[in-house]
Structure formats: structure tokens, C-alpha cells
Amino acid sequence: MKTTIQALLGALMLMLLSLPAIAAASGYTQTRYPIVLVHGLFGFDNAAGVDYWYRIPEELRRSGAQVFVAQVSAAEDTAVRGEQLARQVEDILASTGADKVNLIGHSHGGPTVRYVASVYPQMVASATSVGGVNWGARLADVLQGVVDNVPFSGDIVAYLGNALAGLIDLFSGGGNEQDILAALSSLTTAETIAFNQQYPEGMPSQYCGQGSRVGSNGVSYFSWSGASPLTNGFDPSDALLGATSIVFLGEKNDGLVASCSSHLGMVIRDDYRMNHLDEVNQVLGLHDIWSTDPVTLYRQQANRLKNYSF
Ligand code: CA
User: Fold this and answer.
1) In this predicted model, what pLDDT tens digit does every residue of 279-294 receive, in sequence order?
2) Minimal CA–CA distance to 46: which of 78, 67, 69, 75?
3) Which of 16-25, 67-76, 155-164, 223-232 is the least confident region?
């Protein structure tokens, strides 16, 4: 009897130990084309040992995805960032032999991946926007209003913003040009609407609507976003996002971007209990512990991309 129980326990242990191997072997995130992650304003790939996409590339690679983390200017105009990204995509295609990539952009990375999908659709299988500034960022509107109307404030914003972007670039070894005033302008509602008219693929025809999953250029479009500025009392960034969220005057937002502004293509969900930094699993994985793990959404999206098999 005892040996039977021991044998059963042994078999159970063996099964539990082999579960991660089964998950990895199953290729849950094994997309046909490489995944390229594209950061937002004041973002980077890896700066002084800290990853912008905290634990996300590792968790995607664990079950089969090929993942690249792009680095474009921390603060620049969308088209400038887009052209920088396009050159990196060309390098990725050359080094992997893949025909296309799956782009995933966070925040200003949303319009950045859309730019590449619109201008170079032959290189792009899908464009996914996470907390993307696709229809303006209210904070950018407010700051732009200050810059336009308060004497010398543009100089101060330029000085501080470019200094911060330059510092991020230095620590992350980017070597990219920085222009905070161009970045700020391209994130305003007026400029994003002009951008959408020029690059309409995947965008809903009206604010807060759904776009079509497959754009007229053949690229597939997806988006998701959080809608909770405050999610974890241990995360110091919650105070900042709680403060910035007041500019929304009650409209659903993640602390920096309105849920409705994040909509692109097939809207997976726009109200996860996540703030703007939770969306990339920051700071250091601190998010609402009772709600969806941000990393899970990236794994699910990779699986979705795999199943649509472009
Ligand atoms: Ca957080």
C-alpha cells in the first residue's frame, strides 16, 4: 500500500515538474513572425540594468516567441520615431530571415508602430497598441496650452524634457536625437487627429469606436488599455499617475491616456485594473495583485497572433 502511494506521489511530482516544459514545448507564444516591442515617451529598451518591458520579453520567449526590444528616441515626433523603428525592423528581418514582424507599442509606441504599419505594410503582420495615444493625451494638451500661452515656458519644458530624454538615452545607450517639444506636440489631440487622417489604417472612424481587425493595408490591428490610475500602494509611481489623472475630469483613463483614446483595430479591452505603467509591468512588477497580471496579456496576445496565423 505504502509503495503504491509513494509511486503515485512520485508520478504526480514528475507530472508537476514537467508542466513548465510542456507549456514551453507547446509553443503557446510561438508566433509565425518575430515580435518587436516599442516603448513610449521617455522610454528605452534597457537603461542602467532596468528593462522598460519588465519581465515581458522573457515570458514571451519562454514558450516559443522570438522577441526584439526596439529603441527609438525617448522624446521625438511620431514620424521620426517611426522611421527609426522602420530601420530596426529592416535589420530584424535581415538577421532572422522573417518576411514580417508583429509590432507591439506602448503609449507613444502605439502611433509609432501604426506609422510603420501604414508606411511599410509589407514588413508588418500586425500592430498592437497598449495604452496607446491614438486620439490625443489630455496632459499633452494642457502642457501645450501652457507652452503656447506662458512666456518662456517652452524654453523651460524644452530644457527639462530634453535633459531627461538625453539622460535616458545616455543610460540606455541609444544615441538618438531628442526633441521634447516635437514629442509633446505630436501627442496633442489636434496633432493625433491630423496624424490619423494621414495614417488612418486600423483607426476607428469616431472617438471611442472600434476599428476593423484587418486594415485596408492587410495589417491586423489590436489594442488594450488599463483604466485604473491607482492600483498598488507599494508602487511610488501610483502617486504620480493619480495626480496626472485629474486632467481627465472623470473620463475613464489609465493616469495618462483616456481609455477611448487607446482604441485601435480590435479592442481587446479598455478597462483593465491597470495604470499606464502597469501596462508594461512597472514599477518592477507592482500591479493590482487581485487582478490580471500585465504579463499574461502579452502572452495571450502572442497566442492570438499565432492563432490568426497571418
Ligand atoms: Ca504599477
Assistant:
1) 999 999 999 999 999 9
2) 69
3) 16-25
Find cell 523651460 and name the residue: 156
**pLDDT, tens only, 80-93:** 999 999 999 999 99
Q: How many Å from the N-terminal Cα to the C-terminal Cα in the chain?
A: 54
Q: List the catalytic residues.
A: 107, 254, 276
In whole angstroms, how large is the CA radius of gyration of the chain? 20
User: Could you give the CA distance from residue 127 to residue 213 in angstroms, rounded to a whole number?
Assistant: 10
d(CA 90, CA 308): 23
Task: Pull the grid cell for residue 103.
Answer: 509590432
Q: Calculate how far, in angstroms, residue 294's C-alpha sits from the geometric centre of ligand 1.
A: 10
Report the pLDDT averaged over residues 193-202: 97
C-alpha 232 to ligand 1 mean position (Å):
6
* Of the candidates 157, 108, 44, the residue with the CA atom closest to the CA atom of residue 256: 108
Q: What's the CA-to-centroid distance between 263 and ligand 1, angstroms?
A: 21
What span, in angstroms and rounded, lies between the C-alpha atoms of 281 and 221? 22
- Ligand 1 centroid distance, CA of 66 (Å): 26
Q: How far is the CA of 210 from the centre of ligand 1 (A)?
A: 27
